[in-house]
Each structure stands twice: as C-alpha cells, then as structure tokens.
Amino acid sequence: MTMLGMYVPDRFSLKSSKVQDGIGLYTARRVKKGEKFGPFAGEKKLPSELDESSDTRLMWEVRGSKGDVLYILDASNPRHANWLRFVHQAPSQDQKNLAAIQDGENIFYLAVDDIETDTELLIGYLDSDMEEEEEEEEEDVKDEDENSKEAKHLVEMELVIKKEDHPCLLCESSFPSEEILAAHLQSLHQRPSTEEKEFKCRNCGKKFPVKQALQRQWVY
C-alpha cells in the first residue's frame, strides 16, 4: 500500500511516533525474531559531502571488507528513500527491537526480538557490536591508565632527582638543599685544625680527614 506518497508493505503501517516528533513505522502483524527487512534506501554520498547540519539519524555508513567507509546512504530526501526511513532510533538499548546489519553493500533491519502487532519499530545496535565498542573503550581506558602511570612515574623520578641535587664531594651522599649539605659537611667531614689528618695519599703525600676524600683523590 501507499502511505504519505511512499510504498509501505502491508505488514507495516505509518503512525505518529512515540519516541520523537513525526511519523513512525509500526507493525501491522506480529514479527518473529530473525526476520529481515530492506534493504535501506538512500542517496549515496561521500563523508566529505556531509556538514554539521546533516541529519545523521537518517544515514547509514556502508563499509568495505577492511572496515573503511565506502559511502553513506542518506535517506533525508524522501525521493531517494523508502519506508525504512520512518524507523527511528531507540531511546535506549533496552527499547530496541531492530538492529541494522550490512549484507554486501546493502543495509537491512533485523528483528532482534519477537515484535507484537501495533508496536513501533525502533533501531539499536546489535549486542555484539556493543560488546566490541565496550571492549574498545576499555582498551582506550587501559591505555590512558598506563600512560598516566608512566607519566606519574617520570614525575616522581624527576622529583627524586630534584630533591637530592646537592651531592657531597667527600662521600656518595646527596641532599635536597645547600643548608643540609653544609650541616652534613660540618658534622661528618670537618675536623679541628689542630687534629692531624689521618688518611695519607701514597702517591702525593697529601693527608685527608676522612677516607672517602682520600678515595676521591685517587679517582681524580
């Protein structure tokens, strides 16, 4: 039969949509799970031909074997569309009763549940597609977490380096400030001027107050 100037199969009817303004597609008889309708009709367009004002609710991407977009079917113009343009997107996954599938370069609508008579047809994603998207999102989150951990580790390393950037030249210790380094030198390495130096260099005869200083003398 013809409704609103467009052919509609007898098992469907057009009435006011319950999910958005305008006309929706309803069942005129019971539809069994697994039934397939279509193909979806629309004007073929390249992604570059679309702009921000385009109504993507009436479009489907047709993809090649490698997942690349071959073209887009745009049903916004009734002259290039068919009755499937009146199937609206389900407000939630729980409310969907159809899912879009691609067969070759054609888009069909598949009944994912038994659909009773006089029920509005609402399109959603296949559960398998949703699982793939969720897995991709989880991978993205995991990558972000790993990057965040790595960045945090680098920051911590940088802080450690900055925290101890005042090394003692007489031993292997390092300190966060010159004041603490000075206190370290005074308490550990400095000896009274009257005290005889204890460690003598066998090469040059110089004496040092601590063994570490003598060892550094050998290095230099």
TrEMBL record:
Specify the domain of life of the species encoding this protein. Eukaryota
Q: Which UniProt keywords apply?
A: Transcription, Transcription regulation
- Domain SET as annotated: residue spans: 10-126
What InterPro entries does the entry give? SET_dom (IPR001214), SET_dom_sf (IPR046341), Zinc_finger (IPR050331), Znf_C2H2_sf (IPR036236), Znf_C2H2_type (IPR013087)
Return the protein name. Answer: PR domain zinc finger protein 5
Keyword check for Glycoprotein: no
**Compositional bias of kind Acidic residues:** 128-147
Report residue spans for region: Disordered.
128-149
Q: Does the keyword Transcription regulation apply?
A: yes
